[in-house]
Amino acid sequence: MRLVLLGPPGAGKGTQAKRLSQHFGVAHISTGDILRVNVRQGSPLGKEAAGYMDRGELVPDALIIRMVEERLHAPDCQKGFLFDGFPRTIPQAEALDALLDAQRQPLDRTVNIVVPDEVLVERATGRRTCPACGAMFHIRFDPPRQAGICDQCGAQLVQRQDDTEETVGNRLRVYHQQTAPLIDYYRRKGLLAEVDGRQTIDAVEETILAALRG
Ligand code: AMP
User: Fold this and answer.
1) Are 17 and 123 in contact (CB under 8 A)?
2) Quick one: which of 93, 146, 189, 191 is 20 to 30 A from 214 by CA?
3) 161 CA distance to ligand 1 centroid (A)?
């Protein structure tokens, strides 16, 4: 199974990507996660990307495409993969097509998780993640049992630096300008499935699985 998850920031791509990659036994590739690891480690890529990320802007295509190409060569991608947060521009989508054509491994589907803007700000600003195990929570919609503590491993939860109200607003503007055109790009290729992301997490997953079966 080779999938792309599309949707604005806060739509639930990361949450669904974790579940779906487990369900299908394929690699979960989040370009945002790879970038955050690089920023934490202070690698040259991380140093170059950090400013863009803090402002809620996109990291330049060339850096992202090189990073994805390297990731796709890892052995765990043989069985398939699920992209979360990539591609985010038309040139990234074209580069992905070229990479996959060369490997004769075309995409099976692209799933767009649709959520209106007004819901997204509340979702993104309430999001908390566990830096130790990657578990995700929401202070209103999916709170941990003990405030600020990861249910799964007991670590202190953190808020992503770019989940402040101001940066989320900027990320939404960037999404509409640069990423939303991908919806038509994949629709024209006959690959697009759209699901309502306002449902519960379980219901969104079920809807996606049903769309993939259909
Ligand atoms: P995410 O975790 O997917 O929301 O990504 C967090 C930030 O990383 C974004 O706001 C961008 O600055 C950067 N980023 C992640 N994926 C990409 C991508 N495919 N293209 C450009 N920038 C990206």
Assistant:
1) no
2) 93
3) 13
Over the chain, what is the mean pLDDT? Answer: 95
Amino acid, res. 214: G
Nearest protein CA to atom 5 of ligand 1, as residue:
32
Tokens coding 71: 């990731």
The structure tokens listed for 12 are 């639930």
- CB 138 within 8 Å of CB 123: yes
Would the CB of 4 count as within 6 Å of ligand 1? Answer: no
Q: Which of 212, 193, 202, 196 is nearest to 16 (CA)?
A: 202
> Would you please indicate which residues are annotated as catalytic (active-site) residues?
13, 88, 127, 160, 171
Q: What is the pLDDT of residues 2-50, one digit of tens each?
A: 999 999 999 999 999 999 999 999 999 999 999 999 999 999 999 999 9
Taken in order 134, 140, 142, 143, the sign of the CA dihedral is positive
